[in-house]
Design brief:
The structure is a single chain. By secondary structure, this protein is an alpha/beta fold. The protein has helices at 40-46, 67-79, 94-106, 120-126, 164-181, 183-190, 194-199, 201-221, 236-246, 250-268, 273-285, 296-304, 332-345; strands at residues 3-9, 12-18, 34-39, 54-58, 87-92, 112-117, 134-136, 139-143, 151-153, 309-310, 313-321, 324-331. Helix 4 packs parallel to helix 8 (201-221). The termini are far apart. Bound molecules: nicotinamide-adenine-dinucleotide (NAD) and zinc ion. Nicotinamide-adenine-dinucleotide binds next to helix 1, helix 3, helix 4 and helix 5.
Length: 346
């Protein structure tokens, strides 16, 4: 059954309640002090868990990850005379955990926060590390804060209702972790497939826990993204641009971004072309796309507006080998040339 481990970031303890049940949130605050933020999809599927709680629902989907949604939640909190002593609990995928974290960090200058990630992607990535944010027009996560929750509760029963396409999204981030930090995990993923993980709860729990530790170790070392945390952006620079221009899901866009980054690594770090091939095979095994026909000019325009741009350079995460990555500055003019070369030849 459940067990707990902790990480400490900036003197704040974050408790990881692993393989626990939802009702454990009551160990943190009485029901009357808890406000649950969730989305309509989770509410429709799991509202039996929410009986007796004050629930604020947002519309599902990335399109609603906006300041407008945050403002609407704040209006509802104020209208219900919710005080600073509220315990906000975000229950949902990455959109909900990002929004709940942001709201908790700004409402009355900061409230208590707990997160219950319900999608695989949120469990292995979005709910971890304290970053939150909203999109501004086409630009992803342009506004937000860094704010740690007191607990992150992993109730793997939520995954029973997760649609298959969302499992694939989660595996994109898991494969990302393997590529940048863990060759053994890459090997293990290569020896299994999606349905192995869906049908074997022990195998899945171990994989999720390994990914939690991998990401948390990076974050603990580097809360403000000066060193290794940058590596978590592997596949995301081009990925975010594709996600926005083509309205593609985060995981699928990142999958294509990782293939591009691997091919770029061949040109810059001497990354082995066979390893690129192994990455493509692994992504395909987890039903993720590896190519797309894009309008290079549109994508390049968005890339130039990326948060990670510094002057005429962009820090790009490249692989040295599977399990080892580094961030390197690339001139935007070179990046444009590489995009034209790599994305044209597929
Ligand atoms: N803050 C971070 O560090 C960080 C890291 C990675 C990703 N993210 C963000 O996470 C988001 C993507 O996460 P996501 O894919 O979880 O998005 P999401 O929250 O949109 O969830 C995807 C869909 O799955 C549904 N869903 C979630 N759990 C479910 C369940 N158990 N059963 C049935 N349906 C379920 C949701 O209602 C939604 O429709 C993006 O906005 C991304 O920017 C943030
Ligand atoms: Zn991601």
């Amino acid at each position: 059954m459940g067990y707990t481990f902790n990480y400490i970031i900036d003197n704040q303890k974050i408790q990881f309640l692993f393989e626990d049940t939802f009702s454990s949130i009551l160990n943190y605050a009485p029901q009357s002090k808890i406000v649950i933020i969730t989305d309509e999809q989770i509410d429709a599927l799991h509202n039996n868990l929410f009986t007796g709680f004050h629930v604020i629902k947002i519309q599902s989907g990335e399109i609603n990850k906006t300041q407008q949604t945050v403002d609407a939640i704040i209006d509802q909190l104020l209208a219900a005379s919710i005080g600073k002593d509220v315990f906000i609990v975000g229950v949902g995928g990455g959109v909900v955990t990002d929004i709940a974290g942001y709201v908790a960090s700004v409402y009355k200058r900061g409230t208590r926060l707990g997160l219950v990630p319900t999608s695989l992607l949120a469990m292995v990535d979005a709910a971890l590390g304290g970053k939150n944010g909203v999109n501004v027009g086409q630009y992803k996560n342009m506004v937000g804060t860094i704010y740690q929750p007191e607990f992150i509760l992993f109730d793997l029963n939520f995954l029973n209702s997760l649609p298959i396409s969302k499992w694939e999204n989660g595996f994109a981030e898991i494969i990302k972790h393997a590529c940048i930090k863990d060759a053994a995990m890459f090997e293990k993923l290569s020896n299994h497939n999606l349905s192995d993980y869906q049908n074997n709860s022990m195998l899945l729990a171990t994989l999720i826990e390994e990914n939690v530790h991998l990401k948390m170790n990076v974050v603990v070392e580097d809360v403000f993204e000066k060193k290794d945390r940058k590596l978590l952006n592997f596949g995301h620079t081009l990925g975010h641009a594709i996600e926005n221009v083509y309205n593609m899901s985060h995981g699928k866009a990142v999958s294509i971004g990782m293939v591009f980054a691997a091919k770029l690594s061949e040109k810059i770090t001497g990354f082995d072309a066979n390893s690129t091939h192994q990455i493509i095979q692994l992504l395909e095994k987890y039903q993720l796309p590896t190519t797309i026909e894009i309008d290079n000019d549109k994508i390049i325009k968005l890339l130039f507006a990326d948060k990670k741009r510094i002057g005429n350079e962009m820090h790009f995460v490249l692989l040295n080998e599977i399990g080892s990555a580094e961030a390197k500055p690339i001139l935007l003019t070179d990046l444009e040339k590489y995009i034209n070369e790599i994305m044209l030849c597929g």
